[in-house]
Amino acid sequence: MDRVTLLDLMQHPQRTAALTPALWCDLIATARNANLLGKLAHRLRAAGVSVPAGPMRHLDGARLLSERQHHSVAWEAQCIDAALAHTGEPVVLLKGSAYVLSGKTAGVGRLFGDVDVLVPPHSLGKVEVRLMIGGWTQMKSDEYDQRYYREWMHELPPMVHVRRGTVIDVHHTILPLTARHHPDAEAIIACSTPLPGYRSLRIPCDEDLIIHSMCHLAHEGELHNALRDLDDIDSLLREHTVAPAFWDRLGARAEHHDLAMPVALCLALVRRFFDTPVPDSLIARLASGNARALERLAQRYDTAIAPHPEGRPPLRSLVAQLLIYIRSHWLRMPPQLLVRHLSRKAWQRLLPDASSAGKNKQGA
Question: For the chain, which terminus, N or C, has the lower number of CB atoms within 10 Å?
């Protein structure tokens, strides 16, 4: 089953009534491959669609998993709040946890693996210490990885809770410090609003919530969650389609964050994939005379984002994915640092193989 059919059935669940058993099998596999099975399950259930017993088992499993994850993230938020409230610093939830805890449609049925938060740069030391006291520990012990995160990236090394196994990513901005674009993290925090029931947790304003999701997609080199992220963006945008002033605010906010082109790209993509009613004038404004380059880039993403039941996209998709992967690193790091970083990571991958080969030879 191709991407177009998957998205059509996601948007029009009643059309699944015409599916044969083989097509149901393809739909389940393709949605799972795109990390959209939980969302599909909720939409079919909300539409009251009759589903055969076989596919229903997979859909129920995904729906229950998403509900369990949502309960888990609510509990995790309580634990993070308890650990960080005494710092007196704002803690802004990002992406999936923000969608779920603020009741956004984008969170319904969504599956995710960790909690992302944004804190002021000056508070990183005490936030890290409080999290460690609360049971979180570093996942990266390698000296180079520690330096990579702390000197060049937009976040601390990931931390995992020693008992629950849950992961938290602590951001101090939303793009690496070495990136070509420089969003205003202080403005995101300043315009965030308190999350009711919590002492320190906050939610970004709607414009920043959307822009961060777009920023992540446009700078991410691995596209296995790209359709899910585009579905998130579509859902978030549709909450404001009846408010014309919203589009001007979104455009102004994108320009303020130095993210005009990434936002233009994502607006073009959601309109291409989901027929989201995005004004032409906004995309033209943000593209700022680069309409042809934007169209070429959107076409490359269109080719790359092609989930298949067997998980093996065609060669043209693989080529497009490779070009996007290279572009993402080019946007994240200057050339000299990029070459050094990729060389280091390649060498680290080769060392275990070389060591293993040596041990096998000695044993023989």
Answer: C
Unique residue bearing structure tokens 């070509």: 180
DSSP 151: I
Q: Which of 222, 151, 218 is nearest to 183 (CA)?
A: 218
Of 142-151, 216-225, 279-288, 306-315, which has the strongest mean pLDDT? 279-288
Nearest Cα neighbor of 30 from 55, 57, 50 is: 55
Where does the pLDDT of residue 312 fall: very low under 50, low under 70, confident under 90, or very high at 90 and above? Answer: low
What distance in Å separates the CA atoms of residue 262 and residue 217, rounded to the nearest whole number?
A: 9
Type of residue found at 237? L
- Expressed in angstroms, the distance from the first to the final Cα of the chain is 48
Nearest-angstrom CA–CA distance, 132 and 162 = 10
Give the sheet arrangement for strand 193-194, strand by strand. Answer: 136-138, 159-161, 167-171, 114-118, 91-94, 201-203, 193-194
Query: Position of tokens 């777009």?
Result: 214
Task: Classify residue 333 by its DSSP letter.
Answer: S
Q: Is the Cβ–Cβ distance between 181 and 262 less than 8 Å?
A: yes
Q: Which amino acid is at 119?
A: V
Position 358 scores a pLDDT of 40
Residue tagged 């210490």 (tokens): 129
Phi and psi (nearest 5°) for 120? -60, 145
Buried-exposed string 121-140: b where 16+ CB fall within 10 A, e elsewhere = eebbeebbebbeebebebee
Instruction: Give residue 348's pLDDT.
Output: 67
What are 20-24's contacts with CB under 8 Å, separation 24+?
21/52, 21/54, 24/51, 24/52, 24/54, 24/55
Average pLDDT, stretch 220-232? 90
Place of tokens 């001007």: 248
Long-range CB contact pairs, 190-197, < 8 A, 24+: 192/90, 192/92, 195/77, 195/93, 195/101, 195/102
Confidence at residue 236, expressed as pLDDT on a 0 to 100 scale: 97
pTM exceeds 0.90: no
C-alpha distance from residue 80 to each of 127, 155, 159, 182, 202 (Å): 10, 16, 12, 27, 12
What tokens does 137 get? Answer: 């520990």
Report pLDDT for 344.
Answer: 72
